[in-house]
Specification:
Number of strands: 2
Largest sheet: 2 strands, antiparallel
Radius of gyration: 22 Å
Number of helices: 20
Distance between the termini: 19 Å
Helix content: over 70%
Structural class: mainly alpha
Shape: globular
Order of helices and strands: HHHHHHEEHHHHHHHHHHHHHH
Strand content: under 5%
Length: about 475
């Protein structure tokens, strides 16, 4: 393995403010706003769903504030990997990063399945060529081909440099925003407030249960702002600005989801939402009284798939690269392309796993996504704890973006992150099943195996020297 300085010097700072904002915001809006808006409204009511996203969004904002301070103080590739090492040490650093890599991979896998699924709305009955059946789902050859083709395309784009990926991100995010403005504006002029009834729905006899049912969606839908710290060494901004852009991206995502819920509930009444498989495109079609409007919204959904897919290729590959470059994963994943300055083997690994995802069909991917959600909130918890530890242990550490009332913010971030993690435990609203716990356990065991192999090969001293040199 090469030294830390020689490897990391090859990462180039090319991402401007607009690139970074599009990267994080595009990651957070993804495809979920197309699929889950109707479910959220049915679960909590129109105002209840908006309230749930605001409450969940505030929790993410608090976690985001801890990220913003740490990202500006330690703008190094890998983000969580660096913060948790400085605060908590070697093994917690690996576990934190390994957990969020599972989250990133789950989103990449999800998008590889979402793409062929949404294409069915534009080209019905295109899925032909039965391959096999998994959990009752018939996997078709053409359906798999679309998912694999998309995975390969995203892999190639990321291979040719972060600038290429950032340009794609800005263009496609612009398409989403344009269609979103059309949708919200149309709902304000053509929508009907009577359609918003009920404002609050009861789940299991309780209004609060309905709101909680929507809040549990928030961690998965808002994951993406943490891509900024992963690519910190490629961001060409003052360190203080990195924290500000991160926070702006989270706030914009909260506003986006709230407006989409409002527009959908203005356009469709509760019966129409219940009968709809994709309520947002159906609401767009109703507002403009034209099928092209619904198809345009589906295209915006495909654009969301691309932005999320692209961002998590960047975030996941940088997290894998950071662990490998620190001697915590096999050295092959620390390789950078001599011309494009991208972690090529880490990108190839992401692409390979993304290509496998469509082969398992839709039901199996739900298990992976749920297990990945647990990995994400555990990483949030580690970062919040790291934030508090460093505030106490290193109060004089330079912090270009310093959070006011930091100890209060950090304490709340820890409590909320822990609370979100508890939602995945048995008996909770988002409790994982046997399949999800099995996936998570296998992922942990795989990580331990790779971690021990890397330490045996390179030694603990190599890794510690590398990390201390960065910090």
């Amino acid at each position: 393995m090469t030294t830390s300085s020689s490897e990391q010097a090859k990462l180039v700072r090319v991402l401007a403010r607009g690139d970074v904002l599009a990267l994080a915001f595009g990651a957070m809006i993804g495809w979920g706003w197309i699929v889950l808006t109707g479910t959220a409204i049915q679960s909590a009511g129109s105002v209840g769903a908006i309230l749930a996203f605001i409450i969940g969004g505030l929790a993410i904002v608090l976690v985001g504030l801890t990220y913003a301070e740490l990202a500006s103080a330690m703008p190094k590739v890998g983000g969580e990997h660096v913060y948790s090492y400085r605060a908590l040490g070697h093994w917690p650093s690996f576990f934190c990063t390994w957990a969020i890599i599972l989250g990133y991979l789950s989103v990449v896998a999800f998008e590889a399945v979402a793409l062929p699924t949404v294409v069915e709305h534009l080209a019905p009955n295109y899925a032909v060529g039965h391959l096999w059946t998994i959990a009752g789902w018939e996997v078709k050859a053409t359906w798999v081909a679309v998912g694999v083709g998309g995975s390969i395309a995203m892999m190639i784009i990321n291979y040719f440099g972060v600038s290429t990926a950032a340009l794609l991100q800005k263009v496609v995010t612009g398409v989403i925003l344009l269609v979103g403005v059309m949708f919200v504006t149309g709902s304000l002029f053509e929508g009907n407030t009577a359609n918003m009834m009920p404002l609050f729905s009861q789940s299991e006899g309780s209004v609060m249960a309905g709101i909680i049912a929507v809040i549990v969606m928030v961690p998965f839908l808002f994951v993406g702002f943490d891509v900024i710290p992963q690519a910190a060494e490629e961001i060409n901004l003052p360190y203080k600005a990195i924290g500000k852009v991160l926070m702006v991206s989270v706030i914009l995502a909260v506003v986006w989801y709230s407006l989409i819920i409002l527009a959908t509930s203005l356009a469709l009444d509760s019966d129409a939402i219940a009968a709809s498989s994709l309520s947002v495109p159906d609401a767009m079609e109703r507002l403009f009284n034209a099928s092209w409007a619904g198809n345009l919204m589906v295209i915006a959904g495909i654009a969301g798939i691309i932005t999320s897919w692209n961002a998590f290729y960047i975030g996941g590959s940088r997290a894998i690269y950071a662990l490998a470059n620190a001697g915590m994963l096999p050295a092959t994943f620390a390789k950078l392309h001599p011309r494009y300055k991208t972690p090529t083997n880490a990108i190839f690994l992401m692409g390979f796993l993304s290509c496998l995802a469509p082969l398992f069909g839709r039901p199996a991917l739900v298990w992976i996504v749920n297990a990945g959600g647990l990995g994400i909130v555990l990483a949030y918890l580690f970062v919040a704890v790291s934030f508090m530890v460093l505030r106490v242990r290193e109060p004089d550490m330079p912090r270009p973006f310093k959070v006011s009332n930091g100890k209060l913010c950090g304490t709340l971030a820890i409590i909320l992150s822990f609370g979100m993690a508890c939602l995945y435990l048995p008996g909770s609203p988002a409790a994982l099943g046997v399949a999800e716990w099995t996936i998570f356990a296998v992922w942990v065991l795989l990580g331990i195996g790779l971690y021990m192999h890397a330490l045996h090969t390179y030694g603990r001293d190599y890794s510690d020297r590398h990390m201390r040199a960065d910090l």
